[in-house]
Amino acid sequence: MMRYWIFALLALFSSATLAEVSPCYYKVTQVKQDDMLWIRSGPNIKYQRVGAIPPSATEITATGVDISVDNTFWLPIRYQGIYGWVNRDFLTEDCRCAYQVEGVKSDDQLWVRAGPSVKHEKVGAIPYNGTGVQVTGLSVQVQKDYWATIRYNNIEGWINLGYVTKQCDFVPLSQCDYKVNNVKADDTLSMRFGPSTKYEKVLAIPSDKSTIKLMGEGIKVGKTTWIPIQYADKTGWVNQHYVQKNCQTPSVIKQ
Known about the structure:
Structural class: mainly beta
Distance between the termini: 35 Å
Number of helices: 2
Radius of gyration: 22 Å
Strand content: over 45%
Number of strands: 26
Oligomer: single chain
Shape: globular
Largest sheet: 4 strands, antiparallel
Order of helices and strands: HHEEEEEEEEEEEEEEEEEEEEEEEEEE
């Protein structure tokens, strides 16, 4: 249980990078106008409420990946400065990027249909090189294909997501890697599961490493500032005193 909550805390604190890197916000769905979507301190209705989101709210930021608890998916989020968990069923993606058609021959087009299957009638078509396709809802799987509701010009309907790709350019939270600093050559920097020496070590980072990724904003625990980082495909926390920026030429990430 302790290890579970360490990961949960890491998901919540590692918010800034995800907020910048993800091309999509979330918005509330399927909540009545006289009701609210509750934010809880943990991924279950057993946990206390820490806030509420109005039924028409948008710009909700995911701070980690969703997890399944008792057949319900819960997502760690941030909304207007409140961090917590919400039932994933009551959120839908609110993407600020578009999609472009891919994998369609130049003498063909991508059909927009009335429902999520080729069995449904055609309601429109998108050119083989069409761009600016807006996904307007969650995807559903029908047999082996994923379908989603979209809007293209004045056409609304369903398309097979196998024929589109995201059309987004965005800049990461930090354009700089970090490197180990103030650590002796024969010593290592400990990455921990949480922002304190009380937490177990995830791994040890050699003193000469310079490919450390910042994953969010730091927090102060006592007199020490801890920052969430990624190194060697692992995420954890390190004492900020022992790393420094290692800036190179800024780059744009494409997704």
